[in-house]
Design goal:
Layout: H1 3-13, H2 15-39, H3 43-70
């Protein structure tokens, strides 16, 4: 099996999760960009908000998983 076949199989198998991850990342980066264009905060805070997206991502999907498990 070639590398192209393996990649296409992986994408086919995980398509919905990859799209969800991409949408979350785009929304997070857009919100942070708009916020810091409006507020004009310090550069270090901008980077901290971008890094907080990692925590927000895992927190959001973990809580979503827990809510689905309770149903």
């Amino acid at each position: 099996m070639s590398i192209v076949d393996r990649i296409s199989d992986h994408v086919r198998e995980h398509r919905s999760g990859m799209v969800t991850d991409l949408v979350f990342a785009l929304v997070w980066v857009t919100v942070v960009e708009v916020f810091f264009n409006f507020v004009d905060g310090p550069q270090w805070a901008y980077y901290m908000f971008m890094l907080a997206g990692i925590v927000a991502y895992f927190g959001f999907f973990w809580s979503l998983k827990m809510a689905r498990a309770q149903q």
